[in-house]
Amino acid sequence: MVSSPHEALHQLFREDTALFGRALEHLLGLEFPTPRAVRVLNCDLTEVKPLERRADTVLISESDEGDHIMIVESQGRPDPGKHSSWCYYIAYLHDKYKCPVTLLVTCSDKATADWAGRPIKIGHEKWPAMVVRPIALGPGNVPAVTDPRHASDDVFFAVFSALTHARSAHADAILEALADALNILDTDSAGFLAEFTRAGLGDTAAGELWSLLMSTKIYPYQTDLGKALNPETYAKGEASGRAEMLLKVLRLRGIEVPQDVADHIMACTDEATIDQWLSRSLTATTIDDVLDPVLSPGTFTRGHAEGYARGCAEMMFVVLRARGIEVPREAAAQVMARIMADAGDAALTRWAERAITATTIDDVLAG
User: Percentage of residues in the chain with pLDDT exceeding 70?
Assistant: First the structure.
């Protein structure tokens, strides 16, 4: 999995090795031969130590028309030193493999893409010995994929569009379309790309929005940072959050909950069981009406704070939907954000009160 926006903008071409040809044909009208196979080459282009030269991603496409080397560089800002490196990469790979070489530079801002796309001339100004023409892709020439139907046609390109436009005004609409498009994939593939996108967006406003979209659990493939970093701790936190919200609902409805029973509820880590108890709590008159005849003691450990807060929020959504109150995606995102910001006991009590007394979602969001 990638760990930074820099990695994501070139690593995506390793995950989908045909994306290079599709992107250039789609954006620039450049036709590449249909490959029989595409392999990832060693990115270490060093010949003599200690001078180290390492490209981001290097692919070789093998087709009936011959081999073709494809270099993908991720560039976050203008760096004049890169010009000589790029010229070296091309000359070295062309000499080693005796085939054409194309350089693609991916950028997340237009100014850097404009800089990267300028011809690099080596030699006399009027008669250069070498001219390198990188292909630079950025927000200025990569379309903003804001239609879920178009995003579904090529999900990898939709991810590339999202990463490229991470700082543009189109980011919100692109991420909404991508989140819907991922539903056409199997859960594992969609989850991988969702987490890939999160890492690729980094600490940007778009990254915060993506995490918020994923945290509402509207999407079956949802993923988030807490779950990715420590799944076991996150799951415990989520379960404890759900159990805590159940206890608040019971107490607000005037149902006495002895301490030993509360401990048993908090020890439960089975989501289906807690949801069943919650459904019963909406009509029960005593704690016995809520719980199964036998409760199995467990061990409660307070898990990841993010999982705990989200568990509370999800239980709110269960209560609201059980009461026939629709929870639109935008409203769910607002509730999630506010609970993430304050998951204290007093705040959660207020949310629980709204969940069992509100008549519309606006009542829940008020205040």
Answer: 84
User: What's residue 225's pLDDT?
Assistant: 41
**226 near 32, Cβ under 8 Å?**
no
Domain-wise residue ranges, the chain: 5-137, 148-223, 228-365
Can you read off the two tokens belonging to residue 173? Answer: 């609409």
Q: Which residues of 117-131 are buried (b: 16+ CB within 10 A; e: fewer)?
A: beebbeeeeeeeeee
The answer to whether 271 touches 285, Cβ cutoff 8 Å, is no
Q: How far apart are CA 158 and CA 183, in angstroms?
A: 13
pTM: predicted TM-score of the whole model, two decimal places: 0.59
Alpha helices in the chain (DSSP H): 5-15, 19-28, 81-97, 110-116, 148-153, 155-164, 171-181, 187-201, 205-215, 225-229, 231-252, 259-267, 271-281, 287-290, 305-322, 329-341, 345-357, 361-365
Mean pLDDT on 157-186? 92
**pLDDT at residue 296 tops 80:** no
Local structure of residue 65 (DSSP, 8 states): T
Phi and psi (nearest 5°) for 265? -65, -45
Alpha carbon distance 72, 326 (integer Å) = 46
- Cβ proximity of 259 and 247 under 8 Å: no
pLDDT, average across residues 109-113? 93
Cα 323 to Cα 163, 272, 309, 329, distances in angstroms:
39, 18, 22, 17
Residues 78 and 312: their CA atoms lie apart, in Å, by: 45
Whether the per-residue pLDDT at 108 is higher than 80: the answer is yes
Q: Would you list the DSSP string of 188-217?
A: HHHHHHHHHHHHHH-SSHHHHHHHHHHHTT
